[in-house]
Amino acid sequence: MKFLGLRLDAHDSSITYTDGPNVKYYKPERHNQIKHFGYDNLKDWPQVSKILGFNIEDLNAIALVIDVPKHSYLPKEDPDRLYEYISIPYLPFTEIKCPVFRIDHHYAHSLSSWMLTDTEEHFVHDGFGDLERSISIFNNQTKIKSYNIHEIESFGRFLGDLGKYLKVEGHPEDIAGKLMALQSFGQIDKGYWNLIQNLSYEDFSKVSNYENYKRCYQSNIACELNLLNYLSTIHLFTENKLPEFFKKYLSDKQEFTYSGGVAHNVCVNTKLKEAFPKMIIPPHCADEGLSFGCVEFLRRHYEQPAFSKQGFPFWQSDTPPDFHPQLSTIKRTAEHLAAGKIVGWYQGQGEVGPRALGNRSILMSPEVTNGKHILNEKVKHREDYRPFAASIKLDKAPEYFDWQGESPFMQYSVKFKDRIFDPISHIDGTSRIQTVKPNHQYFYQLLSEFEKVTGIPMLLNTSLNDNGKPIAGNPKDAINLLRNSELDMLVIGDKVVI
C-alpha cells in the first residue's frame, strides 16, 4: 500500500512517502533554503509528488498533523482521541479519494522512532502539542498520561521565553537551543536552589515562575543581574528531576523512546541516559519527525509489513553528488584538515534531523588553536558562546571521553577524560559527540585517514550552513557557502572545490 504522511503547519514541515517497504522523506527547507519552513498554505505541498515520485490519485491513505485551532472547519479536538477521519475543503484534498486521517501531535511523535526500535513505551516532551500539552506518555499505542502547559509548564517554552527576554537573536525555534548553551555560563543560585531542590518535576511551573524567583531576592534589579544564574538553576533542576519523573511511568524494562523538541537538549539527555541506558532518542525528535509518525500510524492501522530501515538516517530527498569520494580524495582531505584547514564535506543523501552527521558537514581539526573562534568568525557567523560537536570513531570514544556505547546522533554531552580539545569543548568541559561506525563508509574512512596523519581519531563537525540558514540541500548551496565564507575547501562527492 502507498501512504503519505504530512506535517504542514507553522514550522518544520516534512513529508514522508512509502510505497510498501521503501521510505522517502522530504523537508522543504533543504530545497527552498528557508530555515524551519512550514506550509501555512495547504495547497502548496502537492508539488512534492514529483520529487518523491508518487501520484496523489494512487495513494491508499494520508495521515497528517495539523493545527486544529487554525482551521475552524475541523472538529474540536478530543483529548482522548489519538486520530480521526477528516475532510478538508481545499484543493487538492477535495479531489483526494483515499481516507485522510488527522493524527494527534504527541501521538505522531511517539510513533516516529519505528526505524530505531520496536518498543511500545514512549515519552514525549514538547514545547507544546495539541490542546497545549507539554508532556505525554504512551504505552502500546495508548496514552496513559498527559499534562498541559497549565499543569506542567513546558521546559522548552520556558527556555524560549527567557531567551526572548534576554534578547537572544535568531529564529524562535532555535532560541531554546541557544539557552542550553548559555546556561553553562551561569552559576547555581544557592538561595533559590535551597527553595526548589526538594520539589518534584510536577512542580516545574512553580519552579520556573519568575515571580517566585523575584520573591527570593525581593529586588527587581538583583533578579535582572542574576538571570543567567536563574537559568542555570532551573536547568539543573530539570536535569535532576526529570529522570525521577520518568520512573513513575516506565515499566521495569526501562526501554523507551524519548521525543519532542525538548529531547534536543543534550545536557538533560545525558542525565536521562545515565539513568536509563536503554533510552532511544531519534535524530528527528522535534516536529520535523512527525511525518514519520504519520506513516507508521497508517502502516499499523492497515496492518502492513514493517518499513525498510536501510540507510537511515541519510534519508533526505535532497540532491546527492554524482560520485562517491575516492580514497585519494579522502586522503587529500585528511591532509588539509591536519594542516588546520576548514573543509566543507558534501556526500550522499542528507541526514534526517537538524545535526550534521557526516554527509553535510563543516569539518576542522580539534587541535586548531583558537579554532572555535576562527570557525564562528570566518564561516558560521554565529554567537561565540555556542559550542561545536565532535565526531569520533566508535571504538576510540572511550579513550577520549567519559562515555561507553554509541551516540550516533549527537544527542549527549559528555566529559573529556584526560586531554581537552578547545575547539570542541564547551565552557563546562563537555563536548557533544557523535560516534561513527565503519558502515558510515566515507566519513569513517576520513576519520581513519585523519588519525593516520595526526594520531587523533576525531574531527570537529558542524552543519554545512551559515548562521540562520538550513543545511545545504544541493551542491549549489554548498558552493554558495564556500563563496560567501572563508571555507578553505569543499569536497562534493569526489570533486574538490577550492
Provide a brief overview of the structure.
By secondary structure, the chain is α/β, with parallel strands linked by helices. It folds into three domains: 3-114 and 285-301, Nucleotidyltransferase, domain 5 (2-Layer Sandwich), CATH 3.30.420; 148-275, no CATH class; 327-497, Carbamoyltransferase, C-terminal domain (DHBP synthase), CATH 3.90.870.
Keywords:
alpha/beta, 18 strands, about 500 residues, Nucleotidyltransferase, domain 5, single chain, eight-stranded mixed sheet, DHBP synthase, about 30% helix, 3 domains
Percentage of residues in DSSP E strands:
15-25%
Q: In the CATH hierarchy, what is the superfamily of the largest domain?
A: Carbamoyltransferase, C-terminal domain
The global form is: globular
Structural class category: alpha/beta
Helix content: 25-40%
The CATH class name of the largest domain reads: Alpha Beta
Query: Could you give a short account of the major beta sheet?
Result: 8 strands, mixed
Distance between the termini: 47 Å
CATH architectural name of the largest domain:
Alpha-Beta Complex
Number of domains: 3
